[in-house]
TrEMBL record:
Gene Ontology molecular function: N-methyltransferase activity; protein methyltransferase activity; S-adenosylmethionine-dependent methyltransferase activity
Organism in which the protein naturally occurs: Drosophila erecta (Fruit fly)
Span of domain SET: 55-287
Name used for this protein in its record: Uncharacterized protein, isoform A
The organism's place on the tree of life at top rank: Eukaryota
């Protein structure tokens, strides 16, 4: 007898109908060869009342990656392109993000935070009986979590990670068609993620091939297309994992002509960062805009499985920003060392002052040292200690242009303007203002235009 046939009746009297795994899987229509025109129809239905009467964009075939979003007319910098609600959201299951209710995202108490219906998901008292939680609760209880009898309450991030995928099965038919129409990388790590999650249950339907194939595909779609978006609830901020199909269809450029931000984790807002001509492809970035060439391309290779070929990636100075730069290690020289080649993940490095060439392995060690040192400080230091570290200690081993040091400066800006509520001295506020101007100058050199990061730094987006 299959796991689906052993399902208990729905609790609470709601949610009638056939909710077996086989029935849910059968409605995931195989529309992966969807044409751009068919995809556009699915997107229109998904946008609903947010679809503009005469949109300034359209979906069409792209030479970059199969299909993309294009301007139907000239679009001015700063102009709204579209808004989109998340098709589905779920927890990121990151460390430090496990103490929020999976439905309302309020902070949970230190004890008694697991669902009282014993699905072992972290959910508040109010949401435990909600219609939103009912179907997923039944799935998890049906699969029998192994730690349901544990004496000490704890959230299992492996099982929590697949919650977003489970929620996809309970979307409407057209919505599920849209998920299945999206691109998904066939990455082995995605299968391992599901296998590891399955091991957290006593009765996971691993023998149901139709269901497992569909689950593998959904996880692939999510890992390829989902965004992490901040959500604030009751003065508490957490990260949500959301699928925004239209936003995800936009192709990547390292300095894109469009920029997006999220409102409370559930609404994506996309605006033009620069003027976009009629017929031009509307692009976004899949990386952080201030990462170095090498860091961006390693990330894209590992997570998106492609190498970027944009103009920025072919310029080893990155428009004179020198985000990759490290100090020369030659005695008596304090010049900047930057990668020579731009199309390899293990380039040679050359000093622009003494012109000595260094192997990548040697420079990678220095970069890792800077990265680890600064990240350790970010995670443990007060704002005052971070300012001292950036101003007094970092210049000894890291040029001010290096992207890791730029991340540290951004950390100070965020903490002083968005998270901390303590009073700062005029001197400390002066340092923050200087960091802000330095970051804005780099964005200007990159040609980032009216990007989201600029608007966050200048307070245009809260």
């Amino acid at each position: 007898m299959s796991a689906a046939a052993q399902c208990p009746p729905p609790r609470g009297g709601g949610g009638g109908g056939d909710t077996t795994l086989a029935a849910l899987g059968a409605h995931m229509a195989p529309c992966r060869d969807t044409t751009p025109e068919q995809l556009a129809q699915l997107i229109d239905a998904h946008l609903g009342d947010l679809r503009q009467e005469q949109p300034n964009w359209t979906i069409s075939s792209s030479t970059v990656a199969g299909r993309g979003v294009f301007a139907t007319r000239d679009i001015a910098a700063g102009e709204l392109i579209f808004q989109e609600r998340a098709l589905v959201t779920g927890p990121t299951a990151r460390k430090g993000q496990l103490s929020s209710c999976i439905c309302c995202h309020e902070t949970l108490p230190q004890t008694g935070f697991l669902c009282r219906h014993r699905c072992t998901l972290p959910v508040c008292e109010t949401c435990a009986d909600s219609e939103e939680h009912q179907a997923e609760c039944e799935h998890f209880r049906r699969w029998q979590p192994k730690d349901v009898d544990a004496e000490q309450e704890q959230v299992n991030p492996l099982s929590l990670r697949i919650l977003t995928a489970v929620r996809v099965f309970h979307l409407g038919k057209e919505q599920r068609h849209l998920v299945d129409a999206m691109q998904a990388n066939a990455e082995r790590a995605y299968r391992r993620e599901i296998i590891q999650a399955a091991q957290c249950f006593r009765n996971f339907p691993t023998t149901d091939r139709v269901f497992m194939d569909q689950l593998f595909r959904i996880v692939g779609v999510l890992n390829t297309n989902a965004f992490e978006a901040p959500c604030r609830s009751g003065g508490h901020e957490t990260l949500l994992r959301g699928l925004f199909p239209l936003t995800a269809i936009m192709n990547h450029e390292c300095t894109p002509n469009a920029s997006h931000y999220f409102e409370n984790g559930r609404l994506a807002v996309v605006r033009a960062a620069r003027d976009i001509p009629k017929g031009g492809e509307i692009t976004t970035t899949y990386t952080k805009i201030l990462w170095s060439n090498l860091t961006r391309n390693i990330f894209l290779k590992m997570t998106k499985h492609f190498a970027c070929d944009c103009a920025r990636c072919h310029d080893n100075t990155e428009n004179g920003t020198y985000l990759s730069a490290l100090f020369c290690r030659e005695q008596g020289c304090r010049g900047l060392v930057i990668p020579v080649q731009t199309r390899t993940l293990q380039p040679d490095w050359r000093c622009i002052t003494c012109e000595n060439v260094f192997p990548h392995a040697k420079m990678a060690k220095y970069q890792d040292f800077a990265l680890n040192t600064i990240n350790n400080r970010i995670n443990s230091c007060s704002v005052q200690d971070m300012i001292h570290f950036i101003n007094e200690l970092c210049p000894r081993f890291c040029p001010s242009s290096n992207y890791v040091l730029i991340e540290a400066k951004l950390n100070v800006i965020w903490r002083m303007t968005r998270f901390d509520h303590e009073e700062y001295t005029p001197e400390e506020l002066g340092h923050m203002d200087r960091y802000r101007e330095e970051v804005l100058a780099i964005l200007h050199k990159l040609g980032a235009g009216e990007c989201t990061l600029k608007k966050l730094i200048t307070g245009e987006i809260q």
